[in-house]
Amino acid sequence: GKPLIDSLGGWMQQMLPLRGMEIVTYHKNWVYFLSLFSLEEAGTVEPKPGIPPSPRHVTELVDLMRVRKIRVILAANYFDEQKIRTVAKRVDAVPVIVPLYVGGEEGVNTVFELMDHWTAQLVAAYGAVGSTPAESPGSPLGSAS
Questions:
Q1: pTM for the full model?
Q2: Which domain holds residue 8?
Q3: Strand 72-76's sheet: what is its strand order?
Q4: 124, pLDDT greater than 50
């Protein structure tokens, strides 16, 4: 296969347009991935590990997403998809529901395939909602009004 450095360079290039974009995650299990690609986690659907979100928390999160124009939610595919899709629907966001581990979905048999899948899904989601770094209030490239 191709060396890690080649793959990493490809992922970095693919994710570069998303640098500084804000995202909501279902659970705080994406910290290292988000850090690697300079994505900003603005909030989580699940406020504490293993504790389902309260209606108040969901309302506050939806309000935050509306104000900051956050339209992508990232979640592992073993969480309750209905909760993820419900929040996404309330703000017209795209839910990106992907495996967290190798083997977590058909066709994801190596770490390289897993990273390919994550990056491709995120790029597609941000493209689908028409978000660019300049449009994201939390982005370092955003307009300073």
A1: 0.87
A2: 4-135
A3: 40-44, 22-25, 72-76, 94-98
A4: yes
